[in-house]
Amino acid sequence: MEKNLLKYMIQEQKVLLEYGNVKGYLEIITDEIARVYIETGSEIIQTGALCDDVFPSGSFEVKEQDGVICISTPKMIIKVRDELKIDFYDTDGNIVCKDFDGKRTQKNRLSELDKALLEQEGHSASEEEEYHYTVIKDLQNIKAFYGLGDKTGYLNKKGYMYEMWNTDNPDPQLENFKALYKSIPFLIALTDTSCYGLYFDTSYHSYFDMGSESDEYYYIAAEAGNIDYYYIAGENISDVITGYTYLTGRMTLPQLFALGYHQSRWSYASKNEVREIADNMRKNRIPCDVIHFDIDYMENYKVFTFDDKRFENADEFIRDLAKDGFKVVTIIDPGVKKEEGYYVYEEGIKNGYFVKNPDGTVYENEVWPGESVFPDFGNEDVRKWWGGLHEKLVNKGVRGIWNDMNEPASFKGPLPDNIVFRNGDRKTSHKEMHNLYGHYMAKATYEGMKKYDKRRPFVITRACFAGSQKYTTAWTGDNHSLWVHLQMAIPQLLNLSMSGMAFVGTDIGGFGSDATAELMARWIQVGCFSPLFRNHSAMGTKYQEPWRFGKEVLDIYRKYVELRYTLIPYFYDLFHECEKTGIPVLRPLILHYSNDKEVVNMNDEFMVGENILVSPVVNQGQTKKLVYLPEGKWYDYFTKELYEGGQYIIKDSPLDTCPIFVKAGSLIPKYPVMQYIGEKVIDTLELDYYPGEKAEYIHYLDDGESFDYLEGKYNCYRISYDGENAVKEYIHKGFERDYKDCIIKNTCTGVVKTL
Ligand code: MIG
């Protein structure tokens, strides 16, 4: 095979390349981001994950020497060699990401005798996977992989094999699971000297072998499509996340209430039951903003209906709840009940809005409502229609929408590959649209809510794809009330956070199985720091509201929900930062301490922003925690003891204690405890000072609800304090409801400074 450079050509931002019979191009998107496109005999298909306003614009120069094309930008050097192999270098000429030189050595785990025995029994003995393409990269310089969405297991993905195929598997999820509900084909590689990201823009079933097959290479393969990926250069993990979210988008700020505590269960099946939950929240003084209605509020699981007996006068009921500070989120599944006379079904049939069999008839499968049909969300008209259906819910006072079952899940076997879908103007199949189904459903929901409610939509989804953060928050699906799932929650949320999805949470207490009192007490200590803060459990499991486990747990529960409510302004500031940079709210230690070997695999500690470090107990019976503190000085949040960083300490952690540390030299804004956000008017900006070097903090304020901030109606302050001199200045002043006062409290001495 001819493999040498035949020709190359520069066309705007692209360098078109032909090496032997391989054709492709490199496209310089920004100085840090390059798109690699190689034809493998498919039509050009982009997933729609990318933002509309990504216009290739990086500056670059091209040179050719001895058949090697060298493209340099101010931030990276790309060399293309024989067979269209591509290597990425930093500007000092150090290699960062290299195409693997050899061939794959497929795993060969069956002996000849094994194979003969299998074949004798009529089983296939083939170990060969049939991939449409495989991209093989060198593993030698890689310390760790992060990202990849919601995969199970640990923080560092090196050595594991995953698949991108949205999957609803109710079994207890363990580290050998290849796929869960979400597909985010994005990885971050931490190398010996730096860092890079790869985003594969394919929605087809794809495979991410992160060094399970070999210790020399890792590979990404897919079942169809052309090779189409983005290389993202960065000096650190933050840069890579910023680059990735530049491509696929960032969430707009949430409404403030969404940061509060959410209570849910499958299922609160009547008004009385919901009322009782709400009353118990207030009676037990557990702050709570949101109650979720699972599938049982509907009439026969028909979406966009309320059961008119169990939820008679839903409008009035929702209004009453609102008076007490509760917002209602209702679940909406994609499956539409096949029933004559049911308006959603009839409208969809009339307009041809449901996915079809190859023979043109409407495809049916079974989900909660029985025989059901499935909206074709890849079609913009369908999304508009579906979005429009939310008007009714908004008018009833519903404040957010929960999208479930959108992998799509189905009871009578999976949807066949050849079911006909649309993707924009194109007719295509389930094979291409499967991984995008939840993404486009969330998009439809977001746009509908935005149109009718006008405020910042609150959407929560189970299935999603790269870029879904533009429309929705997410929860991690059906975990169980198991200690291993409390443990897994940390790396899972951290990897989702690094994959662009910053507003995420797990079902606190676990969805399936029965939670014990001890598990509940420990789970709330992790849960109160997750951006999405929701307790949810399955029908038939032990009831899991905070008061179901006795007084001790109730008090512990309250302590941590109250802690969350005092930290709401800190969280909101982090969401503001995330909207600007993509840097998530929840961060692994490695994000800030990338040269610290101790934190490459840190699975049981995390950071909330840059200032707060949490090292929760996630093992049954444990009352002492081995805590690693990275460089710097750290205060115990509760006792204010000061610790030197760069060491492990053993921290006493009885059941009511979660080890939490604040970096010396921090300013943390604080709210008083409220039973729901907005219960009290906040006209004093209060900050806690943790003495150290001079602290500087950026604080953001707006109406917490509308999109007015996009027109400049917000305030942004820079506050600095060194223990003596305090300065508060405006970075932006555009919001009329400003604070009246500002006070800084020294958390060690108790001294209060008024500004
Ligand atoms: O087949 O709506 O993950 O949160 O409570 C189960 C009922 C369907 C799965 C979701 C879960 C929800 C449940 N749903």
Question: Could you describe the 3D structure shown?
Answer:
This protein is an alpha+beta fold. It has three domains: 7-248, Sandwich (Immunoglobulin-like); 256-581, Alpha-Beta Barrel (TIM Barrel), CATH 3.20.20.80; 681-754, Immunoglobulin-like (Sandwich). It contains 13 helices and 47 strands. The strands form eleven sheets. Strands 1-2-3-4-18-15-14-11 form an eight-stranded antiparallel beta sheet. Strands 31-30-28-25-21-20-19-32 form an eight-stranded parallel beta sheet, with helices on one face. Strands 33-34-35-40-37-38 form a six-stranded antiparallel beta sheet. β30 (473-475), α9 and β31 (504-505) form a beta-alpha-beta unit. α6 (380-396) crosses α8 and α10 runs parallel beside α11 (551-566). The mean pLDDT is 96. The site of ligand MIG has 11 residues, from loops. Ligand MIG is lined by residues 266, 294-295, 331, 404-405, 462, 477-478, 511, 536.
